[in-house]
């Protein structure tokens, strides 16, 4: 019969169990500190999910998001397209990231107990700094002219604007600083109506005569001062005053305390309770118990020292096993989300939140796995050392010189065998790729569909005012765009503006005054430029941009790129720009007969001439510069809503080999909010199929705004896949009814 278990054995079992449990708790605390309570953890999660980029590309343009956003924006006296197209310029993803990092820090302070309330802290300084950079880029000449200086003093200019704004908010006319414009009676009435839309209806009749009289005598400051106190509520005026005080102190921080008793913030409050309990009670207690249990194990284990390492190693291994088991269970447990999106959220926002939470949980569990592996490795090391010292097994010494020849032979043999077997493992030569697909190599240029970027030069990345694309031109090519619609210009001169004003309703005196102002504020810049209507709102030098396109083509030798140029520059100057950019060896020369079939993509690629250049007006004189509408046709492009899009013939007639589908909305500028719907795969495919049936020709170019929003590229790829499956594209050169 077995006798009773010695008391020392029971002590060891209890000490071992306490050590394992307390060490597991400490491991969990280490995971929490390096994830839940680490700002960099959240930053990495948001970066992994491209959260700030997806806000613009998915959430903002979600069809469920656009109606409330449009309703809100339509209340402002500025076209909503002006705001949404410039939103990413003024508040780019990097600025959103800075704002997010600030809020993450506030949440962690709350979770750690450093704050008794959860605060939303918005630091507008990055936004203000970005606006200032834009102002310096676009309005430097104007500010210098207004200040009558050779270089602008932006600090003084901003201070002057702040003074004017403060007086207007207080209902006082600025003493100076606002222009005096001599308006006709009709113009004053129209301007008065526009200003009165900013005030409540009940106050309009009383303010009308005052505002109209001020505008008729050209006193813009008095008109604004009369409207501002009524248009701005007390709350808005208080907020404006607070912002001005912040600006004077050199800061732009807005802080709002949140009520964590509300359902939406309840999970954060619960998480705070857990983290504080861990930090203030559980973790210190576990550290004390772990130290005491390990010490007791050490003392209760008989000598020698190496023998005492064995139970300590098993403690580490057991804690690692418990941690790994917890990770395994959590990975198998569904529904690990902390926040459940409300049903009112648009699907894209809910999907983004779910993805962020899934990535956060995955990173947390991965960190826990690493901690478990570290514990297991440490435990295994202690157990191995103790076992080796106690048993003393013979282990061959690979560093022994006697083993050198054998080791050299084994390594050499493995290298030789690997070299001989490597070619056998290969599956043969890589398939030939043309325009991103091996199946397209045998297709003709006029048989495939390609994604085209409308106004490709007007980008958020290049800080255009009113951009229509987000990445720069190289970024668009990397994203799958293969046709670039570009506008070439010379910098607009004041006399050209004056010619336009000649057909306006402005009085001769006002036209002369505006022309003199423009001569000071917007001096022309020499050279050739890529601009969107007005070069002062954004411009790229033509030759350097063409050189970038050429560099991209040389770095991507299996791709064909098309340029469709709205040529505001004569053909001779354009030719010089292409020569200066060094593109002569890349330029494709279309057949002089527009009705002849185009070459296959593989033939264009083999020739090296993979850059096709069309002009909207010019046709030559060089053989690579052809008029697009001799070779191609298009659909209308001036539509104000997606419902107005049709397949009616526009420029180029109805019987050309190339077909440009203008698939964008042009209502006062870029419609970012519409892009999620317009650029959806289904919408593009439906319209392309409809226009192909009506026109009897395959769509070759799908031109969109914001090409990286939605899935227009997926639609283009599906069009090509359909044509390859059918092995017979829609016949070209047929005239069909359109509508």
Automatic annotation (TrEMBL):
Natural source organism: Streptomyces viridiviolaceus
Entry superkingdom: Bacteria
Annotated protein name in UniProt: PI-PLC domain-containing protein
TM segment ranges: 281-300, 312-332, 364-385, 406-426
Keywords, alphabetical: Membrane, Transmembrane, Transmembrane helix
SUPFAM superfamilies the record matches: PLC-like phosphodiesterases
Pfam families registered for this protein in UniProt: PI-PLC_X
